[in-house]
Amino acid sequence: MKGVKELKARLKSIGNIRKITSTMELVAGAKLRRLQDRALSSRPYASAIRKMIAQVTRVAPENASPLLAVPDKIERECLIVIAADRGLCGAFNANIFRKAHKYLREREAAGVKMEVYTFGRRSARFFDRVRADVLGNCEDSVEKIGYRRVAGIMGSLVDDYLEGRIQKVSVLYTWFKSAVSFQPILEPLLPFEPEAAEGEREGVGEDAEAASGESDYIMEPSPEAILAQLLPKSLEMRLFAGILESLASEYAARRIAMKNATDAADDMSEELTMEYNKARQAGITGDLLDIVAGAEAQAG
Fold first, then answer.
1. What per-residue confidence (pLDDT) applies to 209?
2. What are the residues whose beta carbons fall under 8 Å from the beta carbon of 81, sequence distance 6 or more?
3. What is the CA radius of gyration of the chain?
4. Checking phi first, is residue 101 left (phi over 0); if not, alpha (psi -120 to 50) or beta?
C-alpha cells in the first residue's frame, strides 16, 4: 500500500487536473453552441445555390462553363483537408488523417499525382510528417478564418483547375450531425457536379430531387453568364461551410473528451480517497498499538 503522503499528493494532482478538464468542458460547450448555430445557418444558403445551379444546368448548353467539364484524364488532384489547430479533442484529428491517408494511397495507386491543401496546424504537421506533397497551407487559425480568405484560396484553386495544373479538387472535413455525432466527409468540388449527392451525408439527395421537376424558365442574362457568377460562389460557400461544420464537430468532440476526462478524474479520485483513508486508518491503528504496547511494557 502506498504511503499517506504519496496518496495525498496524487489526490491533489488529480484535483488540479479535474479543474482544468471541467473548465475546458464548459468552454467547449459554450463555443459549441455558437459554432453549431453558424454551421446550421450556412446549410440553407448552400442548398439554395445548389438548387439554382441544378436548374440552370438542365437548360444550359454542354459547354456552358469549364468548371462543369469533366477532364478526359486525371493526372493531378488536390485534396483539401480541414482539421483542428489544437488537440485534446479525442479522435477528431485522427479520424480525418486516417481517411485522408487512405484516400491518398488509393489515388496514388491509381496513378494520380496527389497534392494536399491544409487547414489547421495539426493538419500541416501531419502531412509534413508523412512527407506528402503540400500545395498550400492556410496559416490563419481555423476558428478565426473569414469568408474572404476562404474565397481567395478557392479562387486560386479554381485558377489552377482552369489552367490545367490540376484536374480534380476534393475536400475532406468533419460533418456535424449533432452534439454527440459527427463523421469525416469526402466531398468532390471540381469538376462541379450540380445534382450529385454531397459526400456521405444523410438525406442530401432531397434537394436534388426537389429541384429535378421539369420547368420552363426565361433566363436573363444567359445561362452561361448566370453559371459564371453562381459556380464560383457555390464553391466558396461549400468550402466555407465545410470549415464551419468542422469547427462545430471539433468543439463537440472536445467537450465529450473533456467530460470523459473529468469523469475519469472523479473515479480515480474516489478510488484514491478510499485507499488514502485505509492507509491513514492503518497508520493510526499502528500508532495506537505502539502506544498500548509501550504502556504495557512500562507497567510490566
1. 44
2. 96, 97, 100, 116, 117, 118, 119, 120, 123, 127, 171, 172, 173
3. 28
4. alpha
DSSP-assigned beta bridge partners for residue 136: 117
Report pLDDT for 6.
Answer: 87
Cis peptide upstream of residue 223 (ω within 30 degrees of 0): no
27-255 adopts what CATH topology? Answer: Pyruvate Kinase; Chain: A, domain 1 (3.40.1380)
CA angle 103, 93, 122 (to 5 degrees): 100
Q: What is the pLDDT of residues 30-54, one digit of tens each?
A: 999 999 999 998 888 888 888 888 8
For the domain 4-25+261-295, what is the CATH superfamily, name and number? Answer: ATP synthase, gamma subunit, helix hairpin domain (1.10.287.80)
**Cell 491544409, residue located:** 118
Ranges of each domain in the chain: 4-25+261-295, 27-255
What's the half-sphere exposure (Cβ side, CA atoms, 13 Å) at 55? 18
| Segments of the chain scoring below 50 in pLDDT | 197-200, 202-213
State the pLDDT at residue 280: 79
pLDDT of residue 212: 46
Q: State how far the Cα of 4 lies from the Cα of 278, in Å rounded to an integer.
A: 9
